[in-house]
Every structure is written in structure tokens, then in C-alpha cells.
Amino acid sequence: MSENENTENESKFFKFPNGAPSNQMMNAVTHAGNLDEFAHRIEANSHSTQLDFYEDKNNKMSQKVVYNTDNTETTITLDNVDLFSKSKKPVKKILTYTLVKLSQANIYENPSDDIKLSFPLQDLVDLGSYSSPATARQAFNQAMNPLTSIKVSAILKDRKEQHAVTDNKIEVLFTGAEIKKGIVNIYLNKRVNWQLFALQYFSLLPKTYFSLSDNAADCLLNLSILARKRISDIKKNGYFNLGFRTIQTILDLPDENKTKNPGRDIKEAILNALEEINRTNEDDLHIEPVFNPNGNIIQFLDDGYAKITLRNQFENYFLELADRKNAKIEQTMKKREELKDRARVKALADKMKENNIQ
Prior knowledge:
Structural class: alpha+beta
Number of helices: 14
Shape: globular
Radius of gyration: 23 Å
Distance between the termini: 74 Å
Largest sheet: 6 strands, antiparallel
Helix content: 40-55%
């Protein structure tokens, strides 16, 4: 067992990959069966992400989404959406734990063989996802086919060049999965650059995620991922906000105009999920729902938000990230000023030389 794994065993948190391609893959899997509505909501609510949805005319079960941001372009294809829809709960929990184990693995570049991630099936019981090894085994058997059918193509962009995450145009992520003598083995495709796909940035995920109800778990995972993007707010204010419209999208809750009981189906679903997270993580975070109790469902969604305050180790992790980011920015600005100073000195020297010649 590595030192990293030992540290995580003693902690209330897992280190969780937080790269754009892996986050976008998680979104596609989480919203399988509702990808067209999800894409529409992302387009309406996001100023920085474009998400296009495609359905195969010859195979209604095959769907794909294409994410475009300033820095990434990611295509996720799900060949049999019905598999994901029928096994959504085990797929999400087991995929999340697979990414946790990925964060602990020492993935090197250009491996000659597919990479194997292994963990005891008992882990899923100990974390509270399942009541016994038998139910965990049943859930994993349900999740195997969907997991091994996720296909991804991704490009990371910077100012100078583009970096391909996959060797070919599109690749399956997981080439195989099995249980042997109580040990889960999941095989990672060697033609995927796992460093670029998932292992450049990390967040913290409370271990309670695995024992929560679907809505609370989805909400907790997303706020953990979002916290990294909001480190400036955490540093400045001690909290960050998550709008109820965004939570409606995260939880695949119905459109307020398409349900007869939006108070139960939307408002209560959001508030209950937040209350469950509060109850199970009271030492590490606090969520305060902010909304007008006399407002209608439109006002609740458009104006309401969750004020998320992190505490203790959870807060310290992101404060340290903020400090490192600020230090990096300051270092970059200092280097730019030094280059400008050198350019000024050179220009002055050239001018003096030119004047002497004349």
C-alpha cells in the first residue's frame, strides 16, 4: 500500500481527479438517458461551455455529446444508453470509485499493456454503498457492460499547441472489468493518455459520498469538483455559491413547466439533498439554502442558491490551492516585468550605440 493510500485511509476524504475531460465524461454518464435535456440546460446556463448533443439515426440507443470550452474539446459516446439508464446508480458509484483509485495509481507514459486498477469488492461495502459483498457483486456485474462501453476523444488546448488525450480519433476508456476472488480488476486503455485525461488537477471528495442517496451524492460530487474552480471565492469570502438552476441540472430534475407538483419534484428534492449533505458532513462543510420562502418556483430556481462554507481539512485544501495559484500568478507577473525591463535596457543600449555611431 502506498503512502498516498495510507494517508487517504486515515482521512475523511479521497483525492479525486478534476480534469476537464474526466469531469465531462462523468457528466455524460451521470445524465445518460437525458443527454439532450442536459445539453439544452448547459447551453442556457453556462457562458463558457458549449455542449452539442447527437443521436445516431440508425441506432437510437447510441448517443454522444461534444463539449467545447476555451481549453478543451471532448467527445463522449455512449453506444447503449439503455444500459446506463438501467444501471445508473451502480455505474455512477463504481465509476467514481474507479477514478478515486486512478488518482492513487502511478500511471506512467506510453505503457506497453493496458493498465490494471484493483481494489477489494469489500471496499464498496465498507464505504456504505452496499450492505454486503453479495449486493456489491450484483451491482458491479450490472455496471460492467456500461463501464466498458464508454468512448472518449479529447484535445487539450493551450496558447501554443494542442495535446491529444487519445491516440486515435475515439477510444474506449476501460477495455475490461472482472471480479476474481473478491478483487475487482478494471483495465485502462493504454492508448489513452491518463495524465492528460484525469491526473493533472485534483479535488477532495468526502467519503460520505458513497453512502448518500442518489441526489445528495450527485450534488456533493459536483460541489467538490466546483470548489476547485471557486478557490478565489473561498479564499476571499470563506464560501462559494451554487445556484438552484445548476442543481436542477445536476440532479436531472424535471422542468418546472412540465411537472404538476414542482414544489415536491424540484424544490423539496433540492432542499432534501442539501439537508442530507449537511447532516452527514457537519464537521467539514455547511450548506445554507438562500431563497425567498414566499416566492414561486421560478423565483426559487432563478434567484435561489446554496451558500457553501467549507471547514477544517476541506477548507484548508482549497486555501492552499488558492495560495499556490496566487504565488504562481505573482511569479509569472514578476518574470514578465523582468523581461520588459531587459527589453527596455536593450532598447536604450541600442539607441545609445546608434547615437555614438552617428
